[in-house]
């Protein structure tokens, strides 16, 4: 057995690190890189003492090592990458490739955890491409593709965007045509990896290898230097196959991420500008980290494809190539896309409906009165056999509605106090109460215990939100009423300015409370009277549908109908909504 094969000791991690550290020592400039050489030797000594089968440390990024040991043994690799010296950076990049392809690295690498050793290494790999060596560029491509391909590692958030951005830069400014073709091929392969996983919402998926010749079918034909296509195809295929045989445990399924129906993350555009706007999945939706990252990448590709050139340089060829590449990558994603692009109709449906309810409810009263029961209440009131994802989407949407006091009051006034409209507010509250109480004892339900508890918790949150919104609205109106009491005309103007938000604020009121321009108390009384009138009328209609004589008697008694036959006939003719035509 040769000396190089025994370097690093018997451990799996040592067998990968040992030869690379030895090569770094041999290639280093002893005076300039004395600290690096010393660090490599210390790590080699440490690796010799590590057993082959150490107990796993869940917090460690390296298999078989503790978290502190992992930081220690990876430090010389980080120093070599940061040395800006090709002869030591090249073996360090080769080591990074082997660590990922052999499944030694595991866990999550996120830009939000920037102090982790693996994030620092990926960050350094992205930066080392600026050394200006063709071999280093290819080594960077190999290391980054193996990192994203590794099924034991989830590279996400800012870190994932940085990887994609680095590959963009190599494609746009690579040292030769072959490297540029390789960068484009690696980018396309990474897109297939990201969205194959997003489609299955799993790390353990079958991934096809990209066809380099198809990528160059319409563009970049000028980059085809002799056997470049064959070289790049073999380059990508070798990296992909090197990561296929990882024998150890795959990264566990990421925990779903949901914040009131919105998934947010901050990252950078694939170019150089900071992306500070929110990443919105469909409101009311639940997503995983895998899918969240997929949507972030997709959104950034779309933004980059729409960038415009500056007036100073209207024919910017670099920008044009970048936009073209973005469109090509989007085509790769869509051509290989699965059900993820068409299976969330209910979330899109709720997103559109929420926008209509928020911004256009004043002009769509009748339409909302029809669709709210069909889309929202039907799902909410299904207590025994609901779809978990569907009902969670609805509950997240209702939590948003509950947090907006203006929408809550508008719904109550426009529907529950209108004799010709459904009792939407009442049904929302009753549906939430039923969900909070859970399935009745002895009933058969498709819900698991965890799902039932989740529904109860979310329902209570919605109910609390409704109560808080109503209380806040009443407090506001009482304060307005107090401030309006001293003067007549001034109080009228002040009340209207407070109770009627302007269209400039993005909210159009759906009702006018000030039927009489005096105190708010009379307005509240008017609402109570309207609601009481509707309740009595509905009770009379129910009685009529069971026994017409009792229904008419009740309506006459409550003064909803006059005593004369003509008045009763007129009522039956004008108020057919809800009345049984057979009984009429």
TrEMBL record:
GO biological process: protein transport; regulation of ARF protein signal transduction
Compositionally skewed regions (Polar residues) per UniProt: 486-500
Annotated spans, Disordered: 252-274, 481-504
Primary localization: membrane
SEC7 domain mapped to chain residues: 526-584
An example molecular function term from Gene Ontology annotations: guanyl-nucleotide exchange factor activity
A single Gene Ontology CC term: membrane
PROSITE patterns: SEC7
Membrane topology designation: Peripheral membrane protein
Pfam family, any one: Sec7
Keyword Protein transport: yes
Localization per record: Membrane
Name recorded for this polypeptide: SEC7 domain-containing protein
Organismal lineage: Eukaryota, Viridiplantae, Streptophyta, Embryophyta, Tracheophyta
């Amino acid at each position: 057995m040769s000396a190089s094969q025994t370097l690093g000791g018997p451990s799996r991690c040592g067998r990968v690190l040992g030869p690379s550290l030895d090569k770094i020592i041999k290639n280093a400039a002893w005076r300039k890189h004395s600290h690096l050489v010393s660090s490599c030797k210390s790590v080699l000594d440490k690796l010799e003492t590590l057993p082959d089968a150490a107990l796993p440390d869940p917090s460690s990024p390296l298999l078989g090592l503790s978290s502190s040991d992992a930081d220690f043994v990876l430090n010389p690799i980080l120093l070599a990458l940061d040395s800006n010296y090709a002869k030591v950076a090249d073996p360090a990049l080769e080591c990074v490739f082997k660590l990922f392809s052999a499944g030694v690295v595991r866990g999550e690498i996120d830009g939000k955890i920037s102090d982790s050793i693996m994030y620092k290494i990926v960050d350094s790999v992205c930066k080392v491409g600026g050394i200006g060596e063709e071999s280093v560029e290819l080594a960077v491509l190999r290391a980054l593709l193996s990192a994203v391909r590794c099924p034991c590692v989830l590279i996400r958030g800012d870190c994932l965007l940085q990887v994609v951005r680095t590959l963009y830069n190599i494609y746009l400014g690579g040292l030769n045509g072959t490297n540029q073709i390789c960068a484009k091929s690696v980018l396309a392969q990474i897109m297939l990896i990201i969205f194959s996983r997003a489609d299955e919402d799993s790390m353990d998926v079958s991934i096809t290898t990209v066809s380099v010749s198809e990528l160059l079918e319409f563009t970049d034909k000028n980059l085809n230097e002799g056997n470049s296509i064959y070289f790049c195809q073999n380059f990508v295929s070798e990296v992909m196959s090197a990561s296929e045989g990882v024998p150890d445990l795959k990264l566990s399924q990421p925990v779903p991420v949901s914040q009131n129906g919105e998934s947010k993350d901050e990252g950078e555009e694939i170019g150089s500008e900071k992306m500070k706007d929110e990443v919105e999945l469909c409101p009311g939706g639940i997503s995983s980290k895998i899918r969240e990252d997929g949507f972030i990448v997709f959104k950034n590709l779309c933004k980059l494809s729409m960038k415009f050139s500056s007036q100073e340089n209207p024919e910017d060829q670099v920008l044009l190539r970048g936009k073209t590449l973005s469109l090509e990558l989007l085509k790769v994603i869509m051509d290989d896309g699965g059900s993820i692009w068409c299976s969330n109709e209910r979330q899109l449906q709720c997103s559109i409906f929420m926008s209509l309810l928020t911004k256009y409810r004043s002009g769509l009263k009748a339409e909302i009165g029809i669709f709210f029961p069909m889309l929202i209440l039907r799902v909410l009131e299904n207590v025994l056999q609901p779809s978990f994802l569907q009902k969670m989407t609805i509950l997240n949407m209702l939590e948003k509605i509950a947090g907006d006091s203006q929408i809550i009051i508008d719904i109550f006034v426009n529907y529950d106090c209108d004799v010709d409209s459904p009792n939407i507010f009442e049904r929302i509250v009753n549906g939430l109460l039923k969900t909070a109480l859970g399935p009745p004892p002895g009933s058969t339900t498709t819900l698991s215990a965890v799902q039932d508890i989740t529904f109860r918790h979310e329902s209570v949150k919605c109910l609390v939100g409704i109560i808080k919104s109503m209380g806040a609205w009443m407090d506001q109106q009482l304060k307005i009423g107090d401030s309006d009491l001293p003067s007549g005309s001034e109080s009228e103007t002040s009340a209207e300015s407070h109770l009627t938000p302007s269209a400039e604020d993005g909210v159009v009121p759906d009702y006018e409370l000030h039927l009489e321009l005096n105190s708010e108390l009379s307005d509240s009384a008017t609402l109570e009277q309207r609601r009481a009138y509707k309740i009595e009328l509905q009770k009379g209609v129910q009685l009529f549908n069971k026994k017409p004589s009792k229904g008419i008697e009740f309506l006459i008694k409550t003064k909803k109908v006059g005593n004369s036959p003509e008045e009763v006939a007129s009522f039956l003719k004008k108020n057919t909504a809800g009345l049984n035509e057979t009984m009429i």
